[in-house]
Specification:
The structure is a single chain. The protein starts with a strand and ends in an 18-residue tail after the last strand. 29% of the residues lie in helices and 18% in strands. Strand 5 (108-110) and strand 6 form a beta hairpin. The protein has a domain at 65-189. By secondary structure, it is of the alpha/beta class.
């Protein structure tokens, strides 16, 4: 049986001056350095464990090779995003297939009138890492190489974090091996063509 584990490295942008009904406090991201993580600095590991258990997310900065892989991936993602819509949609999920490939307009939100509206500005591309025959890769641009390279580093870092805080092994019953795949997601918001989006929290600067 194939095991799929989802690892996510997130970037949080906290904005001021956004009006609306939501009065919740912003989520503050706890960040530790990769250097402190590797040398098992007690303070850093304490922040890591507390953040994961209390917030479910933690940041690790200074990971070797990460910046270069991200820039390569962004370049490939931009090339794919510039393709005609019918070409991109040809790499979408077919009937009865896994969630892999291109996806648009699969999620919904409530507008000001309480009506559910399709979120057609949210674009995703899913893939499994390491590569598998189930993945769908475009032929027009090389998205595969940069997606898998960045995904492999993220998967490795996620497994290292799980190991460091004791989430792997007989105590938890969680084991990862060569058959374990991580689920990767390329996610971006495209700019509204007519500027008339029903979601008041979208900004014209999003592309």
């Amino acid at each position: 049986m194939r095991t799929i584990v989802a690892f996510t490295l997130s970037m949080l942008f906290l904005s001021e001056g956004i009006t609306g009904e939501d009065k919740s406090e912003p989520l503050l991201l706890d960040v530790i350095s990769y250097e402190d993580f590797v040398r098992e600095d007690a303070t850093a590991l304490g922040v890591l464990e507390r953040a994961l258990y209390e917030k479910g997310i933690v940041g690790v900065k200074g990971i070797p090779g990460y910046r270069e892989l991200v820039l390569n991936f962004i370049n490939s993602a931009r090339q794919f995003s510039a393709l005609p819509e019918d070409v991109k949609e040809s790499y979408g999920r077919g009937e009865g297939e896994m969630f892999l490939g291109y996806e648009k307009g699969k999620e919904r939100f409530k507008n000001a009138a309480g009506k559910w509206v399709v979120d057609d500005l949210k674009i995703s591309y899913y893939g499994l890492v390491p590569d598998t025959s189930h993945n769908k890769w475009p032929h027009e641009v090389d998205l595969r190489k940069s997606f898998l390279a960045l995904g492999a580093l993220m998967k490795q870092m996620g497994e290292s974090v799980m190991t460091k805080i004791g989430l792997l092994g007989p105590k938890t019953g969680i084991f990862l091996d060569e058959t374990t795949h991580a689920s990767g997601r390329m996610l971006y918001y495209r700019k509204s063509i007519d500027g008339g989006s029903e979601n008041p929290f979208w900004f014209s600067s999003l592309a």
